[in-house]
Write a structure and sequence with these properties.
The structure holds 2 protein chains of 2 kinds. By secondary structure, chain A is of the alpha+beta class. Chain A is built from 19 helices and 13 strands. In chain A, strands 1, 2, 3, 6, 9, 10, 11, 12 and 13 form a 9-stranded mixed β-sheet that branches. Classes of the chains: A alpha+beta, B mainly alpha.
């Protein structure tokens, strides 16, 4: 009997020791949405981190896009399972994610981590706009981008054209570069299958962003209606872009790299892919505004969130891994590989990043576009608002409603979708 | 006792979730709106709201167009293919493989292939249509009148070979003596098909119609890849709409109401289809 009791005691001690010694698991859900070797890079960093921190096990979960990651987190939490500890999701989803209690605040972790406050302060203010809500910090920038104008610099030089400085010049340049009514080449293409984001620089360029804060929209502001009209002018007046809703997001970069369109409005996240495939000199700049000399862009991309429902040890380990991933040199390397804009001041000061800007001047131009960028549409009940805005933008683009009627309807319906938050 | 395992699974994975959906559909429950985070009883409020919502009515219209464009064409083409590939011909195995191979592709891959085919300008689909003098809009996925047909086209290409298999099996198992007797009596061509063969493969036709109909409701991947429900919601199909409600907008109550209506619609179709077929049997 005594022997059995002793055996049990030894087993329990061993079990306790095994539990205590088991590494803390940190999982990261990441959307692979751009053409860049990101998975290999992240896997390499995870291996390196685990080699240096034997008490931590990192699992990487790759998904197709931002909606997939968000759906996976929702499904796990709603189903009573444990979601991945960290997740890269749209920065603009912050209101819905916090309201639904899917994510945890980072404040206590920042306060407790060595150099935590300095770590947060180092992020570029332009990219911290979606990180705070209800006076708390909920996420940090991870892969941030901006919408820019890509142009075929060789074609511009051959046609003796300078990069456009205003809407009028953009229309005229696009018109001059259109060949055979677009059958051979369009002057410009703007992917508008999910149009709100690529449209925003036009509205900002007209003088007003499409929203002011999380419950205030400017969809029917005269400047926004003006921007819709300019989109229509590009096809109707200048005959320089396909009429109506245009090609899919991925097709526009392929068309540009293949020389089938002279300009595209797209994300800086596509920079690496475009430079790899285009056989001509690529120019990058912010989108010209309505008034000569003005420029416009809009921020975008994903932030790193800590999901809800984890133990203090897991939260602490997750934040430490996040700090490791967002080390300045890794941010600079990540930017080089993808075209995503570095979001930390210290990352822009690294020798790697400075050397890259010299080697790839387009990256410097993409980075410069940030100075004229305003925030991406971010509201309460975001996806309902986005669906409404996209619907009426596409109505206007396809000519089923006038720009004014479409934007008035978008404003009225979206206001109803936000009524519960006012 | 023998049916116990099946009964447990049906209760666990069908009846229990269905009961939850039924109850959930009676509550306003939106996770991203603080005042509805705790479900609030709304009776049939979710259903009445849906029927007043132009977006939902658009989904119903889209679904009708999609089913009308897809199902008859799928059934006719699958049957014709089965007739063609049933007999003896040179390269039969190759043609059967060619007809069946889209079935083995995941729908996401099929939609991605068609995204390329449908590219305005140089896409193969528009080039093919131009051979017949087509001069209409080329951006099928971005055109409000064509987007739903682009989805039907992908679903047609993906599923026709699969449905053909069932007709082919039916034709191969036909009682040849009946067909020969009909031929000797002077029946041939279309008359032989409509009066003799089709009634004989009625059970296969019932099965194929049912799975084609249910399949049309179940598919959603091509909507994500090709149109994302656009432009302006003209290609939003029920499952995509359900995903939007449940995950994108976190509206659990309405999501449950749509789920329930979807289940009822599918059940009604299956039962009606079976009853009609059984009546013919008698």
């Amino acid at each position: 009997m005594k022997r059995h009791a002793l055996l049990c005691a030894i087993l329990m001690v061993c079990l306790g020791w095994a539990v205590a010694a088991a590494p803390v698991e940190v999982s990261l859900a990441y959307p692979v949405a751009v053409d860049a070797p990101i998975t290999a890079m992240l896997k390499g960093w995870a291996q390196d981190y685990m080699a240096k921190n034997l008490d931590v096990k990192v699992n990487l979960i790759f998904s197709g896009g931002y909606p997939d990651v968000k759906t996976a987190i929702q499904t796990a939490i709603q189903g009573g399972a444990t979601p991945p500890t960290l997740a890269v999701m749209l920065a603009t989803d912050v209101y819905d994610l916090v309201n639904a209690k899917y994510v945890d605040s980072l404040d206590d972790l920042v306060a407790a981590a060595p150099g935590g406050a300095a770590f947060i302060k180092d992020f570029l203010p332009a990219y911290m706009g979606n990180s705070h809500y209800k006076g708390k910090l909920w996420s940090v920038p991870f892969q941030r981008s901006a919408v820019v104008l890509y142009y075929n610099a060789d074609l511009f030089a051959a046609s003796k054209l300078a990069p456009p400085k205003s809407w009028d010049e953009l229309g005229k340049d696009a018109q001059a570069l259109t060949v055979d009514g677009g059958k051979t080449r369009w002057g410009i293409e703007i992917p508008t299958e999910n149009p709100y984001w690529t449209f925003q620089p036009l509205a900002i360029g007209a003088g007003k962003n499409v929203f002011t804060d999380d419950v205030t929209l400017n969809f029917n502001a005269p400047e926004v209606i003006d921007a819709v009209q300019f989109y229509l002018d590009l096809s109707q007046k200048y005959k320089a872009t396909p009429p109506g809703v245009q090609v899919a997001w991925g097709s526009s970069t392929q068309n540009f790299a293949a020389g089938k369109t002279a300009m595209i409005i797209h994300t800086t996240g596509s920079l690496a892919g475009i430079l790899k495939t285009a056989k001509f000199k690529v120019g990058v700049m912010a989108v010209p505004g309505k008034v000569a000399g003005t420029l416009a862009s809009v921020t975008g991309g994903g932030n790193l969130y800590l999901t809800a429902g984890h133990t203090p040890a897991e939260r602490k380990a997750a934040f430490a891994f996040a700090q490791y991933l967002l080390d300045p040199s890794r941010v600079a390397t990540f930017s080089q590989a993808t075209g995503y804009i570095p979001h930390r001041t210290s990352a822009t000061a690294t020798p790697e990043f400075k050397a890259w800007l010299v080697q790839v001047p387009q990256a410097a131009d993409a980075f410069a576009a940030l100075s004229s960028a305003q925030p991406e549409l971010a509201t309460q009940n975001l996806n309902a608002v986005k669906t409404i805005f996209n619907k009426y933008l596409q109505n206007a683009f396809n000519g089923t409603q006038t720009p004014k009627d479409a934007m008035n309807a978008a404003q009225s319906e979206s206001d109803k979708a936000l009524a519960d938050y006012r | 006792m023998l049916v116990a395992p099946t009964l447990v699974f049906v209760c666990l994975f069908t009846l229990f979730p269905l009961g939850e959906v039924l109850v959930g559909s009676l509550f306003k429950h939106k996770l991203n709106i603080p005042k509805y985070q705790v479900p609030v009883f709304a009776g049939f409020g979710n259903f009445t709201d849906l029927f007043k919502d132009p977006e939902f009515l658009q989904v119903v219209t889209n679904t009708g167009i999609y089913l009308l464009a897809l199902i008859p064409l799928l059934l006719i083409a699958a049957l014709i293919l089965a007739f063609l590939l049933e007999g003896k011909m040179k390269g039969l195995a190759f043609f059967r493989l060619a007809a069946f191979h889209p079935t083995v592709l995941p729908l996401v891959s099929a939609a991605t292939i068609w995204l390329f085919f449908l590219t305005p300008g140089y896409g193969l689909w528009n080039q093919f249509l131009r051979l017949f003098g087509y001069a209409g809009p080329e951006n099928w996925a971005g055109n409000p009148s064509l987007a739903i047909f682009a989805l039907a086209l992908v679903a047609f290409w993906k599923n026709v070979g699969f449905l053909m298999l069932f007709f082919l099996t039916g034709l191969q198992n036909l009682d040849r003596s009946l067909v020969e007797a009909a031929r000797m009596d002077g029946s041939g061509g279309l008359r032989l098909v409509t009066r003799i063969i089709l009634p004989l493969i009625r059970r296969q036709t019932l099965f194929v119609t049912t799975i084609a109909f249910i399949g049309a409701f179940q598919t959603v991947d091509h909507v994500f890849v090709l149109t994302q429900g656009g432009p302006s919601g003209t290609s939003t199909l029920p499952l995509y709409y359900l995903w939007q409600l449940r995950f994108d907008r976190m509206d659990i109550g309405r999501g449950d109401a749509v789920t329930l209506m979807l289940v009822i619609a599918l059940l009604a179709f299956t039962v009606t289809n079976t009853l009609i077929s059984e009546r013919h049997e008698k």
